[in-house]
Amino acid sequence: MIGTMLDNLRNEKPLVHCITNYVTANICANALLAIGSSPIMADEPEDVRDITPLCSSLNINLGTLSKRTIPSMQEAVKTARLKGIPILLDPVGAGASRFRTETALSLIDNAEFSIIKGNISEIKALFAGEKNAGGVDAAQSDLTAAKDTQRVITLAKNFAKKTGAVVIITGETDIVTDGKKTYAAFNGTPMMSKVTGAGCMLGAIASAFAGANKPHLPEACLAAVCTLGVCGERAFSRLKENEGSASFAVNLIDELYNINSKILEENARYEIR
Amino acid sequence: MIGTMLDNLRNEKPLVHCITNYVTANICANALLAIGSSPIMADEPEDVRDITPLCSSLNINLGTLSKRTIPSMQEAVKTARLKGIPILLDPVGAGASRFRTETALSLIDNAEFSIIKGNISEIKALFAGEKNAGGVDAAQSDLTAAKDTQRVITLAKNFAKKTGAVVIITGETDIVTDGKKTYAAFNGTPMMSKVTGAGCMLGAIASAFAGANKPHLPEACLAAVCTLGVCGERAFSRLKENEGSASFAVNLIDELYNINSKILEENARYEIR
Amino acid sequence: MIGTMLDNLRNEKPLVHCITNYVTANICANALLAIGSSPIMADEPEDVRDITPLCSSLNINLGTLSKRTIPSMQEAVKTARLKGIPILLDPVGAGASRFRTETALSLIDNAEFSIIKGNISEIKALFAGEKNAGGVDAAQSDLTAAKDTQRVITLAKNFAKKTGAVVIITGETDIVTDGKKTYAAFNGTPMMSKVTGAGCMLGAIASAFAGANKPHLPEACLAAVCTLGVCGERAFSRLKENEGSASFAVNLIDELYNINSKILEENARYEIR
């Protein structure tokens, strides 16, 4: 099933509109190209008006959030909603600052998102208003709590029911749920957290999978999660002596470029919960 | 001839002022350093005032265009004109949005650019006001039309005559013309389109070549086109098993760093048309 | 001693708040992750208010300076001062434009910085108001003058006394001083100047070292300077045939990831002056 999702992405070459941050925009663009889609970054309201309707999906990422781009996000979300274009929200740093938490909540209040993806701290902050002292990474206390997968699943399902979105909570085990069907995915490597933008890349790739698989959003998200996880494992296993996090990042994009549905199906490890 | 252009660049180490986008600023800066020039990115009007006059050339790139930086572009272009500093315009996404198309046209109306570089869709949009549904890449219909190299040459020559600029249209065959002399260049690899910023890199490098070869702008542009094309071919040929687009990007900058006039002259393939 | 500084960093995993430029934000984030700290980039005043207090140190970098982010810098500096969080200023391009020089001076006037790091041209501009025609790189005349290490030390000490900050002047020999104790450090490779952001990375890493070694700021800065220098040498020595500046950049981050206190102590070359 998830192999087909990847084949669909490769065939449709979805154009993904990203309103995103300047730290990881480059690696996200390269990840989108590697997996077979096309990125277009545009964040000025006047620009967004014409760009969003051209695209197969919309990726909103709150990293380095600035007031200047919030109206663009609102405009793009509205347009995407009207046109039936899937919208993903990546609330980077929600919980760490009220500005990011409130911007995320206000976007969610004003339009139904198709997908919301975050780490455990970000999703908790949006669901229950809890603060996160871990910056853009999950807080240590949350990571400990996340060892109890069932609690993470409950949070994800409740947040999915509340928002109407497919919810992805990333962690050692990644959870994908639309509130009814729930998947737990097990691929990945801790090295992911040593490369800036690993989370942003998942948001970008999930947007591309969603754009090419609109009728099956939970499975599109699962496919994205498994694709990045499998590529991460393969990238890590190819590291040679004396190599480290930068070689891993190069390998990771290379793997996204080289993966196919057969490799993905054979290596993905997930369960329906 | 183009080997001499590269030697001049390496000797003069031109400082290139870039007003550019946050997606590809890093790889463009690294490309400029690798080829032997120095980048300086500055996009605040007050900053631009002092920076442009220090520089050998000016590179204006409309990717992730924001209203905040348009006055900087206008100011920098005016200063560069007065000081005889070559100015290159890279109208990323012209045709995809009216905001980018109109900003490009307004910049062109207000000052003579030395060089305008775009893909077929971008140049058509600026010449004839045609829309592009392909985002920042050339539209499929335009790519098909571009197989007819003669039509691309005619467009390039007409646009050069209209604007007074040396025009570069990138594609499978790259065209460089000042409206009188025309070059068609054949180096390159499709892998280029799998790395974000390959087009922006050409704009950056062409600015550096122009800064070091002011009396010979069409040939400086040809040298830039051939340099990137030759380096692309060599970067591709060095890819090992399991490597992909990120390794290619690393190889490409490495090749820009290592190329010399002999390698360039021996491998460049172009014709006068 | 400097080995202990690195061990402290690895144990404390300091969160570093960066208000920085869009050219080198990505590689700085990756350098911070590789060395064992966590980056958080935030530059909107409302965001900064909540982010700075979460962090172990604050890194202010003036590359691609925009008026939009100056109030964030002021706010973050004020907060960090109140909370005793070390603040590093990297006045990229000071001397090249009045806008950057004056912004740097105004920040310094309004709050005591813990660390100010720049090349010889930048520090001269801030100390004596001298102009720099070299853009963001040191001017040629300044580089020649810098061969006289004693003159650089005198400048660094005077600037340290004037500002109350630990001053780092980078060059072939790197100088670190608090006005009383002075260190001269000799590691490094000219290849550093072929990668955009080598200087910014030092600012980022020195912020991380400072955050984990507050009682010993001059030694924390020396440890940062030596770490980057040693990693640069090792990255350069691992280059294979046909590789160049991009492979060097990958190797450099890999080395930051792999370095430990033993490697650092064995390879660091510095003197007390």
Task: Describe the structure in brief.
Three copies of one chain form a homotrimer. By secondary structure, chain A is an alpha/beta fold.
Question: How would you describe what is shown here?
Answer:
The structure is a homotrimer of 273-residue chains. Chain A has 273 residues and is an alpha/beta fold. Helices cover 52% and strands 14% of the residues of chain A. In chain A, strands 2-1-3-4-5-6-7-8-9 form a 9-stranded mixed sheet, sandwiched between helices. The longest helix of chain A is centred in the C-terminal third of the chain and has 21 residues. The model of chain A has no long low-confidence stretch (mean pLDDT 96). The interface between A and B is medium-sized, with 34 and 36 residues.
- Structural class designation of chain A: alpha/beta
Percentage beta strand of chain A: 5-15%
As an assembly, this protein is homotrimer
User: What's the main sheet of chain A like?
Assistant: 9 strands, mixed
Record field, number of beta strands of chain A: 9
Cα(first) to Cα(last) distance of chain A is 17 Å
List the uncertain runs of chain A: none
State the helix count of chain A. 12
For the largest interface, the chains and their residue counts are: A-B, 34 and 36 residues
What percentage of residues of chain A falls in helices of 4 or more residues?
A: 40-55%
**Rg over C-alpha atoms of chain A, rounded to the nearest angstrom:** 17 Å
Mean pLDDT of chain A: 96
* Order of helical and strand elements of chain A: HEHEHEHEHEHHHEEEHHHHE
Strand order, main sheet of chain A: write it out: 2-1-3-4-5-6-7-8-9
